[in-house]
Structure formats: structure tokens, C-alpha cells
Amino acid sequence: MKAILLLEDGTVFEGTSFGAKGQSCGEVVFNTSMSGYQEILTDPSYNEQIVTMTYPLIGNYGTNQFDWESRKIFTRGFIVKENCNYPSNWRNKDSLSQYLKDNNVIGLEGIDTRKLVKHIRTEGAMKGIISTGLAVSSLKKKLQSYPGLVGRDIVKAVTSKKPYNWNEGVLDVLTGKQQKPKKQYKVVTFDFGIKHNILRMLRSAACDVYVVPANTSAKQVLKRKPDGVFLSNGPGDPAPVSYAVETVKELLGNVPIFGICLGHQILSLALGGKTYKLKFGHRGANHPVKNLKTGKIEITSQNHGFCVDIDSLKDKDVELTHINLNDNTLEGIACKKEKAFSVQYHPEASPGPHDAGYLFDTFIELMSR
């Protein structure tokens, strides 16, 4: 079936649909990863986004029950150059097309994804609508009514409704067993759109993991007498998530804090920094980040469209720890006085030769003092 992508500037891409049918609005972005598409689809940080994969063939190893990063697919649409209908992998359960269909997500293939990505890189990420079966004139009206991401709190759409305990550890591929050492540290984890592998890493670091909704108060957190607080990744603009920023302000100095992605941005706002929207964001498994403490380059997994203004922290008692080598944007901070630190990238993904899992060890060290 014919399908199209209409961008807010009027640009139209025509291709063929796979997965579900219908219409869906979102911010059109691109991801440079060669694999990991199921993790991308189920990452809550992609809430209200239509994701374009730059690698030309997607779906070749199918989908399975192991690679979910959350409870459902959060992307609004999925665009590829070529969708593989005949996947081959020993863990495969369903094709990508069937997976999208079962989860009511529209796929678009057969367009020149290079042209689309170049357009986004030149003009910036923008609103779009992916559709099967409607004329462009009808889609324009639908797209005009979509508010976009700036200034909106979309964390509330992905966060957990109530607190819960997490006890699944990282799977050891050699033994087939989960790494679950004896629990030594009580960690309260804020769910702004958390990925399962972050929770697994915390559990495998000997943490007793208790997950709370995004709007949980500092009083409720401290009542549990945690050894540490974790601020998770999540979607959209961090500035409107002001309730979380105020909560972190109250927690600073009372308990060690570790943040990732949106959690990094929220911590930075709590420390007096500012954030802004990137032109087209950082999304992929191959972004070089320099660790300013060690001088080493970490090849990182990233997924964010907003960034902390590096200049806004210059007069604050904050150490800049990591810098993105593609555009010199801020990737990590530390505040020794408050026992808090964070990174913009995803250390739990470990996509490159320099494993960033040491950051979880840093968190443990802070809680041990």
C-alpha cells in the first residue's frame, strides 16, 4: 500500500507502507545505528517521534521477546530504506512488519532515506505526519494541529503510574544466568521514561532498585532512606518537567544522585543551568565523547533532541566531565559538593570499545562513602 511522509515545510516523501495502517504525527528524526531497531522502537525517549534509520536494510534479524526496553513501542512511526520481510536469527519471533502491525505503528519504506536525513540535517528536525490512504491536503490540516515537543511535558505520558520493585539483572551470555549479587545499596529510581537495561545494570551493581513515578516528591523519596537516587532518561523538553527539577533541588546534598540523558538535563537545571533544543539532535550508537578526566574517547549510544547550555554552568560549582566531539556540546557534569553527577549519553548500552559501565561503579562509590 502507498504511504507518504509530509513534513511541516511541505516536503513530501512517497513510499510503501508496512506494519500498521493509519496516520500519525510526530517529530521526524534520524538514528545512525546499524542495529538495535527493536530497542529504539521501545525506548520511551522516542515518544512522539517518527524515527528514520540511516542504515539501508532494517529488520534482517527480526524481533523477539528479549529486546524490549519498556512495556510498549513509543515511536509514532518508523521509516527505512528497505524492510526485510524474511528475517533470519535464532531468537526471531516475528518480522519487523508484523511487530509494527501488532503494536499499531506505521512503517514507511522505499523512500530515499539519505535525502530525508540530509533535509533534516540542513533544515533541522521538524514536525511531520506519516500516513496510509489520505490525500496530502487532508494531512496538512492534521499536521497543523499537532503541537510539537517544545514547551510540553511528555514525560507524564511514559512514566509509571505507581512505584514498583525491580529485580532483573544483566544476563551473562556465557552462563545464561542473571548477574544478581546480594543487595547492598537502596536506590530510588525516577522513571522519566526509563529503559530496562538501566534497571538491569543497577540491579547487577548490587542495588535494591525501587522505581517511582516522575512526580514523586523529595519527601516521599527520603522517607525510604535511600543510599542513592537515580534520574532516568526520558522524552522531550526538560524545562516543562519543572516538578522534577524542584524535587531534585530538594534532594541535592541529602543523597548521592546519578542521572542519564533527560536525568542529566534535569540535574543540570536543578544546579542552575539552562537547556535548549538542538538543530537535529544526537541519535545513534556511534557518537564520540571525550572523557575530560581520563582523556579517553568513548563511543557512545545517544538519543536526545535537547541539550544543556554549557555556558550556563560556567559560574556554577559544577565540573564539566564529558564533551561531544562532533559538536562540542556538553555530555557530562559532576558536582562534588552535592555528590551528584550525570551524563547525556547512555552508558548502559555500551556500544563501543570503551565500556562506559564504569559510571555505575562511580555511583556505587559515592553511595559507599
Blueprint (SSEs and pairs):
Blueprint: E1 2-7, E2 12-19, E3 23-31, H1 37-41, E4 49-53, E5 57-58, E6 77-80, E7 82-83, H2 96-102, E8 106-109, H3 113-123, E9 126-132, H4 136-144, E10 164-166, E11 170-171, E12 178-179, E13 185-191, H5 196-204, E14 207-213, H6 218-223, E15 228-231, H7 242-251, E16 257-260, H8 262-270, E17 275-291, E18 297-308, E19 319-324, E20 330-335, E21 340-343, H9 358-368
Parallel strand pairs: 3-4, 4-6, 5-7, 6-8, 13-14, 13-15, 15-16, 16-21
Antiparallel strand pairs: 1-2, 1-9, 2-8, 3-9, 10-14, 11-12, 17-18, 17-19, 19-20, 20-21
Helix pairs in contact: 7-8
CATH architecture of the largest domain: 3-Layer(aba) Sandwich
Q: How much helical structure, as a percent, in the residues?
A: 10-25%
**Alpha carbon gap, first and last residue:** 60 Å
Structural class: alpha/beta
What is the number of helical segments per DSSP (H or I, 4+ residues)? 9
What is the CA-based Rg, rounded?
A: 20 Å
CATH H-level homologous superfamily name of the largest domain: Class I glutamine amidotransferase (GATase) domain
The tally of beta strands, per DSSP, is 21
- Strand neighbour order, sheet with most strands: 10-14-13-15-16-21-20-19-17-18
Average pLDDT, to the nearest integer?
Answer: 95
The CATH class of the largest domain is identified as Alpha Beta
Q: Note the beta-strand portion.
A: 25-35%
Overall, the morphology is: globular
- The unreliable regions are none
Number of domains: 2
The ordered string of helix (H) and strand (E) elements is EEEHEEEEHEHEHEEEEHEHEHEHEEEEEH
CATH domain topology of the largest domain: Rossmann fold
Main beta sheet strand tally, sense and closure: 10 strands, mixed
